[in-house]
Specification:
single chain; alpha+beta; 4-stranded mixed β-sheet; 3 helices
Length: 99
Amino acid sequence: MARRTADELADTPLSLVYIAGNLAYAEAAERRLTDMGIDYVLTLEPFTTVSFMGGEYMGLFVYVPTAQQRFCREMLELHGLTDTVDLEWSGLSGSPHGT
């Protein structure tokens, strides 16, 4: 199990679990999910920040099967990857399936 395309997981409901703002965080999230044996989908998408500087940036959005979202979020946070997304919020941003 590892990185998949959205087409490969077309029959699996996916939820956003993590947004990586740079390459180091993206690689760390990929490594952690791969080590955990989780299938995941990556997409490059714009996001806005709520900070002093604000602005729109590109980030790597990490989607996992919805049934594993909570577990994945907790494991990513446990390993210092704190830009996770709550299950309740993850459905608001769309999905790599285009729905």
